[in-house]
Amino acid sequence: MSELDLILFGPPGAGKGTQADRLRDDFQLAFISTGDMLRANVKQGTQLGLEAKKYMDAGELVPDALIVAMAVERLQEEDARDGFILDGFPRTIEQAKALEKQLHDLGRRVTAALLIDVPDVEVIRRLSGRRVCVKEGHNYHIDFDPPRREGVCDQDGSQLVQRDDDKPEVIENRLRVYHENTEPLIEYYDDHGLMRRIDGTRPADDVHDHIRAVIATLRLEENV
Ligand code: AMP
């Protein structure tokens, strides 16, 4: 095997998106976020977007059948040939099994599942202050990482808004869904010997360094 096929997971607000942005600059891996793909579908008003929106707004998981087809198709695109980082997929054991089967059919397998671990209180603090730009989805935090001008993206000048699913009652539901449906993946990937834990409460630079070190080690082990 020569590719590096990675899963990035953890509770909402663990900093997966932030870390994935940085990792994209470090490694030549396709970055695949099912949340971003769904939001793009919602924005474009596709059939999938229309169906997914009601689940997303409530902080519920979009049904496996919709998600798996979308993710599996994306994995087969040219830029994912030499490896990928998945953010937000799989989120259920069913999705993990579907991913495993798909990769197996392609003669590949998951290299590692990186868990960015953050406790609930910190998740709530982070998500309730998160703001994203309407154009590219750049992330800010009103206290920890504010934009230079309030309500305006530093990078592209577009307006900053709160995601519908970052409203307090929805955050609570997303956490419940995470504990019930996604946390079982820890044991699943542990059993497969693929779990790598990262302390997500550390500053973003430290988390980034840790992930890079893990990936560098994996690369050596995989000899790619
Ligand atoms: P995210 O940006 O990863 O937090 O995803 C935002 C929302 O998209 C989630 O709260 C879900 O409603 C939906 N979503 C994203 N990825 C998945 C997935 N793998 N399975 C089910 N729903 C998902």
Give a quick precis of the structure.
The chain has about 220 residues and is an alpha/beta fold. The chain is about 50% helix and about 15% strand.
Q: What does this molecule look like?
A:
The protein is of the alpha/beta class. The chain has two domains: 4-118 and 169-223, 3-Layer(aba) Sandwich (Rossmann fold); 120-162, no CATH class. Helices cover 49% and strands 16% of the residues. The chain has helices at residues 16-26, 34-44, 47-58, 64-75, 93-105, 120-128, 168-182, 184-191, 204-222, and strands at 4-9, 30-33, 83-87, 112-117, 130-133, 139-141, 160-161, 195-199. It has a five-stranded parallel beta sheet with strand order 2-3-1-4-8, with helices on both faces. Strands 6-5-7 form a three-stranded antiparallel beta sheet. Strand 5 (130-133) and strand 6 (139-141) form a beta hairpin. It is globular, with a radius of gyration of 17 Å. The termini are close together. The mean pLDDT is 92. The structure holds adenosine monophosphate. The site of adenosine monophosphate has 17 residues, from helix 2 and helix 3.
